Automatic annotation (TrEMBL):
Organism per entry: Acanthoscelides obtectus
The entry's keywords: Metal-binding, Zinc, Zinc-finger
Biased composition (Polar residues): 80-93
Location of region: Disordered: 54-93
Domain Zinc finger PHD-type: 186-228
Xref: InterPro entries: Znf_FYVE_PHD (IPR011011), Znf_PHD (IPR001965), Znf_PHD-finger (IPR019787), Znf_RING/FYVE/PHD (IPR013083)
Name of the molecule in the record: Zinc finger PHD-type domain-containing protein
Pfam families named among the record's database cross-references: PHD
GO molecular function: zinc ion binding
Length: 228
């Protein structure tokens, strides 16, 4: 079936056939004389039969035989209603209530949570940030002692040394106590004294934490942002 329909549709579905269908029926170009009165004779016969059957149905109904039963007295009596009283009450009261009182508008409560202020991204070598670091450093240099950094030893160590090569007249055990002063691990970037791995700038010879400088401890040549 699909093959037959596809072949027939391909042959008939053309522009000329479509235009011919509109023309033969008088749709376009408009032609009112395409159909004559003789073409509607069969339809008029059907309409006459329908009208005759409708007349027969109407004639079968006898208006004299139809009687209307009287309604009960109870239904005929009007029932008093309180509609007039309600109308009077409605007219007497003043409708001064606004829509906002009936259904108030929603209020914006705002965000109750306070967000932490994040530090904006800055360039370390820029002039404003560099001047700010230098001013803080100058303020703290008056109160912070300048000491040498000792990366290997940062606190006081106590140990005992045994002299195995000493004579019998001397004591076999020699107690030795060496004290190392606790150093201040001052970083010129974060300006804090925190004991961490540090690196030294080759130019300004200032120390900085490896975490603040973004480098590793094993780096040999380090130059800070201020000296670049």
């Amino acid at each position: 079936m699909t093959g037959l329909l596809s072949d027939a549709y391909a042959k008939t579905a053309s522009i000329s056939n479509i235009m011919g269908g509109f023309k033969r029926t008088g749709i376009w170009p408009v032609d009112r004389t395409v159909f004559s009165d003789a073409d509607f004779i069969a339809a008029s016969a059907l309409l006459e039969n329908d009208s005759e059957t409708a007349r027969e149905d109407l004639g079968a109904i006898n208006p004299r035989e139809t009687t209307i039963e009287p309604e009960d007295e109870a239904t005929e009596r009007p029932v008093k209603s309180n509609s007039t009283e309600l109308n009077n009450n409605c007219n007497s009261t003043d409708l001064n209530t606004s829509i906002e009182e009936i259904y108030p508008l929603p209020e914006n409560k705002g965000n109750a949570k306070k967000r932490k202020l994040s530090q904006p991204a800055v360039i370390l070598s820029s002039t404003p940030y560099k001047d700010e670091l230098e001013s803080k450093r100058n303020q703290r240099q008056n109160s912070i002692k300048k000491v040498k950094k000792n990366l290997g030893l940062s606190s006081t160590f106590l140990f005992e040394a045994r002299d195995d090569q000493s004579s019998t007249s001397k004591s076999d055990v020699v107690n030795a106590q060496i004290e190392y002063d606790t150093t201040e691990w001052y970083c010129h970037i974060c300006e804090e004294n925190i004991i961490e791995d540090m690196v030294k700038c080759m130019k300004c010879e200032k120390w900085a934490h490896t975490s603040c400088a973004g480098t590793k401890k094993q780096i040999k040549k380090y130059v800070c942002e201020n000296c670049k």
